[in-house]
Write a structure and sequence with these properties.
This protein has about 260 residues and is an all-alpha fold. It has two domains: about 160 residues, AhpD-like, CATH 1.20.1290; about 50 residues, no CATH class. The protein is built from 15 helices and no strands. The longest helix is centred in the last third of the chain and has 18 residues. The mean pLDDT is about 95. It holds the Pfam family CMD. This is Carboxymuconolactone decarboxylase family protein. It comes from Arthrobacter gallicola.
């Protein structure tokens, strides 16, 4: 039988093949306390979601790591850090995806995610720290950050905060420019297009960020992500962040 006439794999076969790519062969004889739930999980996540859209395994696992770090589901984050390595995501990309969450989820949760990630890296024989990716010093943070921020977001946040009492009217916009854009967007390891796509998924996972989803969706398009890729990335968030948050994010960007 030639390739064109080969029968399509079943949903279950697709799910098992995806699972094996990510985690290795599954021990089907191992005892499970909740086999029915796990069967539903594998079918939906690794059959339906992984089979829908245009994303490769590497991008999907970077999104998964991002979302799980935001949600602080550290056992699953550890498993998917290992899966990301297995499907060929460079360790520096995984690290950068987690590092850049600090402005969005705060340092305590970012440090929790970094600790889980580093444990996996050590288990895989990686030497820490990984190669440095910083490109700015204190004197350049603002100007370099502004060069990343302004083409994508203009002066909207600065203008919106201008009526705060001093010194906050100046300090808060400066913090955003120096910290989010100066400290992180200038780093190596990820392209700006990758950073924007992962930040959009982080905002979807956090929830209640409608004011940020629209601007970040537009920025995603501006730096070269197609609308198809953006929607596919948010669909990939479904099984991890839940339907309400994923659908809310899709509604916020679908008319861009």
């Amino acid at each position: 039988m030639d390739a064109e006439n080969q029968p399509s794999p079943s949903r279950r076969e697709q799910a098992e093949a995806t699972y094996e790519r990510l985690f290795g062969p599954r021990d089907r004889d191992a005892h499970q306390d909740d086999p029915e739930l796990m069967e539903i999980l594998r079918g939906f996540v690794f059959g339906d979601v992984f089979g829908t859209g245009v994303l490769d395994d590497q991008t999907r696992e970077l999104i998964t790591v991002t979302v799980l770090a935001c949600l602080q589901t550290l056992p699953q984050l550890s498993a998917h850090t290992a899966a990301a390595l297995r499907v060929g995501v460079p360790p520096v990309q995984i690290r950068e995806a987690v590092y850049q969450l600090a402005p969005f989820i705060g340092f305590p949760r970012t440090l929790n995610a970094v600790a889980a990630m580093n444990t996996v890296f050590r288990e895989h024989g990686l030497e820490l720290p990984l190669p440095a990716q910083g490109t700015v010093d204190d004197g350049a943070r603002y100007q370099r950050g502004l060069a990343e921020q302004e083409p994508l977001y203009g002066t909207e946040i600065k203008d919106n905060l201008a009526d705060l009492p001093q010194p906050f009217n100046e300090a808060l916009p400066r913090f955003l420019t120096e910290f989010c854009f100066g400290d992180f967007y200038t780093r190596g390891g990820l392209t700006v297009a990758q950073r924007e796509l992962l930040v959009l998924c982080a905002l979807a996972a956090i929830g209640d960020t409608s004011a940020q989803l629209g601007p970040h969706g537009r920025a995603c398009l501006q730096v070269g992500n197609s609308k198809t890729v953006i929607i596919a990335a948010l669909v990939h968030c479904f099984p991890y962040a839940g339907f309400p948050r994923a659908v809310a994010a899709i509604r916020a960007v679908k008319d861009l």
